[in-house]
Amino acid sequence: MDNVKILEVKQSIFASNDEQAAALRAELKQEKIFLLNLMSAPGSGKTTTLRRTIAALQNELRIGVMEADIDSDVDARAIAETGAKAIQLHTGGMCHLDAEMTRQGLAGLGTGGLDLVILENVGNLVCPAEFDTGAVKNAMILSVPEGHDKPLKYPLMFQVCDVVLVNKIDVLPYFDFDMDKCREYVALRNPNARVIPICARTGEGIGEWADWLKEQVRAWQA
Hints:
Low-confidence stretches: none
Shape: globular
Oligomer: single chain
Largest sheet: 8 strands, parallel
Radius of gyration: 16 Å
Strand order of the largest sheet: 1-4-3-5-2-6-7-8
Number of helices: 8
Strand content: 15-25%
């Protein structure tokens, strides 16, 4: 665990991010590598969810993880303990990753032999939603303590996501969180987004999430 690779990634100033993202996606399609962009606020349970996801899929998919943070290598170390290939990306103070930074991360990770690469984006509900990383699909985690009204307050985050994981459902009895309202508000922003309630701590709902992800990977590789 002392050999977790840390890569300083730099934002491109020379080309359109959307063009770079589209080019990266085309390359990933050719290589049959599925890239998932996972976003959320800090403390929502991204790393714990990732560990559960890896455990559920590691016998069927070859998985790599890119952990993005302004500093530290805490998350990459936690992921490396699962046996998955992992790299820590430092953004140099940036609150998000763009396509060029993602490309640098993929090169540093080394994607040979991988089916699925998960990018754990920098934790916040604003900046990451504004930049196409080149990912095939976007997912976000909304934890119960954050409240069911977040789709109303951070519309773009929910507009760009293909799936919303509602995490920490084990504490639903202790918070004023309305799951039906949450689904309604997500549908208001993005009627095509799938909502999957989970508890990363206990594993509840992870099977449905893992099945969805596996289907997406297989469709991308077909």
